[in-house]
Amino acid sequence: MQSLGTVDELVAQARARTGLDDLGSDSYREGLAIAVASCEADGWLNDLGVTVFREQLIGFLSIRLSVEDWYRRHPEIDDQEIVAPLFGLGLPRTGSTALSYLQAQDPRTRSLLAWEASMPTPPPEPDTYTTDPRIAQIAEQTAFMDQVAPRFKGMLPSEPDGPTECLQLLALDFRSAMLMLTAGAGYQRWLTTCDMTPAYEYHRRVLKLLQWKLPTRPWRLKTPAHLQGIAALTAVYPDARFVMTHRDIAQVIPSVVSLHDAMSEMIRAAPLPPDFAAREAGFWEHGLRTTVAFRDAGNAARFFDIGFADLQRDPVGQMERLYAWTGDDLTPEVAERMRSWWTSNPADKHGVHEYRPEDYGIDVDALRRQFAFYDDRFIPPAPEPT
Fold this sequence. Notes:
Elements: H1 7-18, H2 28-42, H3 47-73, E1 86-90, H4 96-103, E2 110-111, H5 114-118, H6 133-148, H7 150-155, H8 167-171, H9 180-183, H10 185-191, H11 197-211, E3 219-222, H12 230-236, E4 241-246, H13 249-264, H14 276-299, E5 303-307, H15 308-313, H16 315-326, H17 332-344, H18 364-370, H19 372-378
Parallel strand pairs: 1-3, 1-4, 2-3, 4-5
């Protein structure tokens, strides 16, 4: 495997590419160093994978340089306030993407859009928010990825002007589950123990920049990986609330592993490691236990729960419940927009996601025992509709 290069070499390339020098706090260096060392130690990326990962790391450094340049020239950006954001979390493959798209149908709220997360600078302008040329750029990149990895779109559909996860903002401090697949096992282990506070501070820094020129609307944000860093998240966003999606664990972990198999097949030099599924299960078990402990430490009132089967059966009804909990009014117009989006975007719109747990060495019965603390509490005994 070719080398990624050192941290200093990656930083130098980003500085040369942008013509900028200031990366702000040095907090990014720890995660970047761990990601590089872990990737080198694992050695499972092929030459294309190393090239892609190197470009990704330089890209995040370049974005960070640009963010800091905007703050240098416009320090008033820091006066922006992010008030009472609602974060979606829960295991992956539990309906959180569909939920985020339903929330995005309400023009009174603000979602983090895919093009904004990928290219947050320059900050978006009101007059060109829906026609920004970056939307077309991300659309081209998405179309290319659909050709390279055609199975992926059926597993996790996305649109350039649709809501996306917070992973790219957290990756600007190199503390993000987005990097686990390429950085490898050592980085994944570190991510369960590191202090996520600097990443959420930078997350807030970028949200302020994105909000600066636009009307202030309440943020609706999400990523399953918020499970891991919920204490740091609430330290940075003390008035945050959470909507947590739930699904039978036997439907979750095999699907996640299948998704990562499809995402990595073009960039890895070998099959998935034999312990890959166990590592994934362990990572998400840690996140669930962390969040359940947080909930039980006097924070239960900050959480609203939605079951996967309930969302599939009655999406608008679940949104009515959520709006009642947040104290907002779900108007008939917004409800109809939600209903129209759901009807136009069936789960199999881009193909059926097929997988078999045994193909990844997953013992479903053992998985249920491992996650009994979660399933017994949050998953109703009735079977999900097929």
